[in-house]
Design goal:
By secondary structure, the protein is mainly α. Helix content is about 75%, strand content about 0%. The two termini are about 35 Å apart.
């Protein structure tokens, strides 16, 4: 099995994760993270997350305060979370510019202009901007990538206005790229006309979203949640960064799902998705801390006791590398079974509990390093999610103990013989 993975599967996965577009896409999705976190705060403040029949002094005071301050709270939400598609576009333009070694200023302006041409329309002589939010994220990534790539290609092949070296770079950049901008924007206008003509007037993001709709439906399922959790841990078992490789495919999908849940919550509508970016961060990745807890309970070897102490604080903040490479988890077949089982169990149980309505759906974007026992509440604003977390935590510890104990006993015997 090691030969198959090392010689066939792993090289292909590494090659895929190193594709220029894939690496740029991963960075672009995180570009709007700060805005989405701020937007989540505005959204929760403006929409107290309590059932209508739940009331007490604190809740009533919150509701009255939100009603009195709804205008600026809604404005904060609209210019942050409801513009995540635009921020993703800008992030992609910056990342691809840096990859090509060019200044990003003109690329951002050109990409934004191209994005607006492809995603907006005039209604009564007013610009209707309906795809600056999560519905425009995929389009933003594609436009930001290909506009910058095309511009850099034309610049590298001599399509630019040469200026004396004495001209300051911030002045020379937009002038030297003027011809390229004209060609690229002209091509974008042709794409807009071609898409509209071929689809009866639809905009590009509508076409793209329709094409990706089946993928979103398949990825938001119990089976997808379990398989993704197992695949992530299986890649880590071979020393590969599961989040970078498998996440290259899933991160854009679950990021869009989270943003759509937030928009639905703010609009007072049912949230459409279970498997979101915050679901991955809270439930799919929760097994590291229980494993450290199990080590601290049963391990007696000097090696494992030292590793558990080192790994505890990082694990509290959802960082698993000290455990993965220190235990080690990598290529350690003696703990492979619980390593895959626990992570798959957590993801599957949380999905079923959410689907059944026992816990709320994730809709608030919380920083990755917030401890999971707090993150499960903040991301769902549902205290029952904390109860489920505690239950799964205990189950994980119980499942890890016999395997860790047997592995640790081997290390104890080895340390005795070394002594």
């Amino acid at each position: 099995m090691k030969d198959v993975f090392n010689n066939k599967l792993i090289p292909g996965l590494i090659k895929f994760s190193n594709f220029k577009f894939v690496k740029a896409m991963q960075a672009a999705v995180t570009a709007g993270m700060g805005a989405t976190i701020l937007g989540s705060i505005f959204m929760v403040l403006n929409n107290p997350p309590f059932p209508a029949d739940m009331t007490n002094g604190f809740i009533e005071a919150w509701r009255m305060w939100a009603a009195a301050n709804g205008a600026w709270l809604n404005l904060g939400y609209q210019v942050t979370l409801e513009m995540v598609g635009l921020y993703t576009l800008i992030g992609m333009a910056v990342v691809v510019s840096e990859m090509n070694g060019v200044r990003p200023t003109n690329m951002i302006v050109t990409s934004t202009a191209a994005f607006l041409i492809l995603t907006t329309e005039l209604v009564d002589k007013n610009l209707a901007v309906g795809f600056l939010n999560a519905r425009g994220m995929v389009t933003g990534m594609l436009v930001g990538y290909f506009v910058v790539e095309a511009s850099c290609y034309l610049l590298n092949h001599g399509l630019k206005i040469k200026l004396p070296d004495s001209v300051p770079p911030f002045v020379a950049e937009p002038i030297s790229s003027l011809l390229v901008n004209i060609v690229v924007i002209g091509a974008v206008v042709l794409v807009r006309l071609a898409v509209g003509g071929a689809t009866g007037g639809q905009l590009l993001p509508q076409v793209i979203n329709n094409l990706f709709a089946p993928l979103f439906m398949v990825s938001d399922s119990f089976l997808a949640a379990v398989i993704y959790a197992v695949v992530l841990r299986f890649l880590w078992f071979f020393g590969l960064h599961g989040g970078n490789i498998a996440g290259a495919v899933m991160t854009p999908i679950v990021s869009v799902a989270l943003a759509e849940n937030a928009s639905a919550f703010a609009a007072g509508q049912p949230m459409p998705h279970i498997f979101t970016q915050m679901f991955v961060q809270t439930w799919v990745n929760m097994g590291v801390l229980p494993m450290v807890a199990a080590m601290m309970l049963v391990c007696r070897s000097q090696q494992n006791k030292a590793i558990s102490k080192i790994a505890l604080v990082p694990a509290l903040f959802n960082i698993g590398e000290p455990l993965t490479f220190g235990l080690p988890v990598v290529m350690n077949f003696k703990i492979l079974v619980p390593w895959l089982l626990c992570f798959g169990l957590n993801s599957g149980a949380a999905y079923l509990a959410t689907s059944a309505g026992f816990i709320g759906r994730t809709f608030v974007n919380v920083p990755y390093t917030v401890p999971c026992f707090l993150k499960v509440f903040l991301s769902t604003m549902d205290y029952k999610a904390v109860i489920l977390y505690v239950i799964l935590f205990a189950v994980n510890v119980i499942l890890f103990i016999p395997w860790l104990k047997r592995y640790d006993q081997e290390l104890v015997e080895h340390e005795k013989s070394e002594a």
